[in-house]
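Q: For a teaching handout, I want to show students what a protein-ligand complex looks like in token form. Below are the inputs, and the small molecule is pyridoxal-5'-phosphate. Please produce the holo structure.
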Amino acid sequence: MDDLLNRTRAAVWHPCTQMKQLEAAPPLAIARGEGPWLIDVVGRRYLDAISSWWVNLFGHCNPRINAAITDQLGKIEHVMLAGATHEPVVALSERLAKLTGLGHAFYGSDGASATEIALKMSAHYWRNSGQPGKNGFVSLKNGYHGETVGALSVTDIPLFKSTYAPLLRHTVQVSTPDARLAEPGESSEAYALRCAAALETHLAAHADETAAFIVEPLVQGAAGMAMYHPSYLSRVRELCTQYKVHLIADEIAVGFGRTGSMFACEQALPLAGSGIHGVRPDFICLSKGITGGYLPLSAVLTTDDIYAAFYGDETARGFLHSHSYTGNPLACRAALAVLDIFEHDQVIAANRIKSSEFTSILAEVAAHTRVRHFRHLGMIWAFDVPDAAPGFSARFHRAALAQGVFMRPIGATVYVMPPYVTSADDMRGLADAMLVCLSDPGV
Ligand SMILES: *Cc1c(COP(=O)(O)O)cnc(C)c1O
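A: Here is the structure, written as tokens, with pyridoxal-5'-phosphate included.
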């Protein structure tokens, strides 16, 4: 094991990591996985309580997803998607269209590239529609949409962004409806609508320069699982329509059942009660859970109207964006297997029961004296630790590892985002582990 850790330090530049810290806190050396468990090279088991950065849905080494990828390997591993097509990408696009109510699917390889695609498509749409001045973007305070240069421009996490500020395009951030920020006595819905009014003030003055408003529906993940009232989405849908600005739903983290519905946007009812199921964004960005955590894949789906604005005889009117691995057949087969599992096992309904059961299991954690703002939506639980001293996240992480749990708090926010195959027993073990960590005077 020491050999592997030395080699990783010598050869691998780890993401989101100050490499010097690996001297004191070496990474886990993982040999294999089994359901929600990670198993290291000496056989120790760790519960993957954050689904390997929110991507894993149905466990590691899932036999059904393994079988789909293995079958596809014997057919075609990859072919470029310009000038060629294949069954997995067509079938996946058809199924995603049915699920989202949006038309053509454009593919990238990760979440940040999906953000880039949506931003470029939106601005290009306005250019094709004779309004090239509509090329600005609005996003939420504390929002996260990825870390490539374009995506980072609409991200608002200072730790990731400040260093690169000179490289980024100017964008506008409006108040976050994060329910923790409501005034005393103000409901989370009233606060959300107050924040939507702030967006309206901005759009009323700047709609002519604005292409799109991008938002993480219901939960701002990287901000520390900040949750907000669904009326915010309903109201901003109205505002975006009224001011002719695209609404981009970044469902990269919350899509595929995380918040209790297949997509988070489904939970926002139109304010006027038009009978539509949820609000429909102009673009939806999907990634993370899309392949069950197996292979890098992202997709952007949009309306038929937006698609039509690119269609024509002139080449440059088309969306000339590409990535080498666009629509990779293995990744698409993994995604199709994931959708099969959702349908066959009725995962959304099953998770509803699991979600309330897990919330009861976490009751003692919620009641712990160090815990504030315990919150929960679907298969996400989070709480804040107001007395956390600097370095809390790393200390909690190490204390949890000693209890056989793999977690990475975000600052003073501890969160649980387990694979859907996690059992009630696993969850009880996780609750006990968190109680030990919270009561450890060294954490
Ligand atoms: C993770 C994430 C991204 C970026 O995805 P990557 O695959 O890490 O590039 C974008 N938006 C949201 C909401 C995310 O959680």
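A: Two things your students might notice: The chain has a mean pLDDT of 97. Residues 2-62+346-439 form a domain with the Aspartate Aminotransferase, domain 1 fold (CATH 3.90.1150.10).
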